[in-house]
Amino acid sequence: MGQPAPRTNSSPWLTIALLCIGQMMIVIDQNIVNVALPAVQKGLGISAENLVWVVNAYVIPFGGLLLLAGRLGDLIGRKTVFLTGIALFGASSLLCGFASNEGTLIAFRFVQGVGGAIASACILGMVATMFSEPRRQAQAIGAYSFASAGGGAVGPLLGGVLTEFLNWHWIFFINAPIGAVLVLAGLRSIPKQPGQGLGKGTDFLGAALVTVGMMLLVYTIVDAEKVGWASAQTLLLLPLSLLLLAGFVIRQATVANPLLPLGLFRSRSLTAANIVQFMMIAGMFGLLYFGTLYVQRVLGYSPLQAGLGFVPIAVVIAAVSLGLSARLITRFGQRSMLFSGLVLIVAAFGMLAFARVDGTYVVDFLPATLVMGLGFGLAAPAMMGLGMAAVSPEESGIASGLFNTTQQIGGAIGLTVLSAFVTARTSSLTAAGKDEASALLGGYHVAFLLAAGFVLVALLVGAAMLRTGSRTAEAAEPGRAAVPGTEDVPVL
């Protein structure tokens, strides 16, 4: 990675554990709320029109602040930014739990999204620079991948358990003690990494352009399903958000100390990894969202049972990400594992496209999720390793923020596109006389096939852009080590 790993008196694996717990807590919160929404609506008397803002109020600042937060980590220190974000996230979670009306809940959810963005923007950068030895670095990135993917799978289960056996307030309360422990333990155990100083990249205009542009883009995407892509709101706000982001790019190309150095994108590995992640996450959201709907609305499972149905995929992702992936990456290389994982994900979506109305969980859903977990457990660590290998430690914060931003935008766009096709197909089948379950399943089949298409595009992009290796990209392969300053030099 160009510099030795940061030193600390505590075990580096303790630091990795704290960072991954923080990542998992934040990811779980993005999913835990969905299961509890009916209880929240009933408890606070929120209208159906405003209920979506319990989710959107978190998603908008989270997606909009990741790049800025990642760069701030490089400038003022990633430990400082991470712990500040965790403290804000924990405190706002507590306030969300105590909210007594929809206005205060939505306001505190916004603050929670700010805290989540600040904390998560730097985590991958810290994880990727903890070790310089390739296999240990692959293990650390595998742990991060599990925290991200496992949190997505555990969220619905935890939300169902807390809501059913306690009440919806506890989906927020649970974050406060975890956040407090993370801050106290992190102050002692996470190594301090001095930043470059605000003078190296205090581009306030660029920060304003990217933050407002990203927030506006996320808002437009998540609200488009309700108001319509052809509505005046969407047709006005979408070009405006893109104009702001274009202004940000122009600003970064001309300012002396850019917030996002455009030179990062000269790395083919980093660029390819972000495109692959965008398409892969766009597809994976199809499993988490429409898979849950299939289990509940077609197979007739309760929310708690549906949450339990996602436990196997979390177990498989854990087994692969935490143990198997590092050994396989060391043996066969990152690109081979990335392509193998993507092929498995495409195959899993193909299996889901044959799910039946009168099917069973064990036959129609479980096998596909196990294949999906294996594929994601292989692909995600390899993808992140390829991307982060070409980034210097001084810029790992902004690269981490970029990865998180790509993930958020990919998920938002992917889910919106899939939902539009599902709605159209379901309505068409209903008009043709199909019963409700058959019409719904027909829509879900379209979603799974489109999701397979997204991941297939990711596979093709990876194959095209990663045909030749870079010395840094191959750092995890046997007998290779990263050489500073040789990013994307073809191997002869």
From TrEMBL:
Keywords: Antibiotic resistance, Cell membrane, Membrane, Transmembrane, Transmembrane helix, Transport
Entry-linked SUPFAM superfamilies: MFS general substrate transporter
Origin: domain of life: Bacteria
Transmembrane stretches, start-end: 12-31, 51-69, 81-100, 106-129, 141-162, 168-190, 202-222, 228-250, 271-292, 304-324, 336-357, 369-390, 402-424, 444-466
Boundaries of every Major facilitator superfamily (MFS) profile domain copy: 15-470
Main location: membrane
Cellular location(s): Cell membrane
Membrane topology: Multi-pass membrane protein
PROSITE patterns assigned: MFS
CDD domains per record: MFS_MMR_MDR_like
PANTHER family per UniProt: BLR6921 PROTEIN, MAJOR FACILITATOR SUPERFAMILY MULTIDRUG TRANSPORTER MFSC
Protein name: MFS transporter
Lineage: Bacteria, Bacillati, Actinomycetota, Actinomycetes, Kitasatosporales
